[in-house]
Amino acid sequence: QLHLVESGGGLVQAGGSLRISCAASGQMFHLYVMGWFRQPPGKEREFVAAINAGGDLTYYNDSVKGRFTISREPSQNTVYLQMDSLTPEDTAKYYCARFMTGWSRYTPEPPRTLTEATKYTNWGQGTQVTVSS
Fold first, then answer.
1. Which residues pair with 30 in a beta bridge?
2. Burial bucket for residue 17 (CB in 10 Å: 0-12, 13-18, 19+)
3. 19 FRET partner, CA 20 to 30 A, in 81, 91, 96, 101?
């Protein structure tokens, strides 16, 4: 069973940067596609970014493309989300989760369901990111 714990959230000014982490317990972590989602206050959870098991394929929501970078460190069983040029619209609780199917490194096109929250499991408890104007 994979257990995920997010950390690193906080308060940051607009234009600033923050890196949040998702630490995983479980021996199979290196085999999983991992994703980040966020849920702004009063809104639905939305896809932010995902990374394949090998760490060589990534996919982003258009709203964060060019500002956020997802990465993973297998030796530490951790997935990161580096967030730059933050705006108040990025304020949300950020969650990591495991995608329930695969994403081959030989298939650069992301899986059709990669952005769907219902296709993820083992959700962490989330970490709050607040961006002040």
1. none
2. exposed
3. 101
Dihedral, 108, 112, 117, 121 alpha carbons, nearest 10: -70
Beta bridge mates, 51: 34, 58
Instruction: Average the pLDDT over 10-36 and give the result.
Output: 95
- Contacts by 108-117, CB closer than 8 A, 24 or more apart: 108/57, 110/50, 110/57, 110/59, 111/33, 114/33, 114/35, 114/47, 114/50, 114/59, 115/47, 115/50, 115/59, 115/61, 116/47, 117/37, 117/45, 117/47
Question: For residue range 81-91, what is the model confidence (pLDDT) as tens digits?
Answer: 999 999 999 99
Determine the Cα–Cα distance for residues 88 and 99; give it in Å rounded to an integer.
Answer: 28
Half-sphere exposure of 127 (CA within 13 A, CB side): 19
Q: What is the DSSP letter of 125?
A: -
Q: Copy the structure tokens of residue 125.
A: 């408890």
Chain Cα centroid distance, residue 2: 16
Q: What pLDDT is recorded for position 28?
A: 87
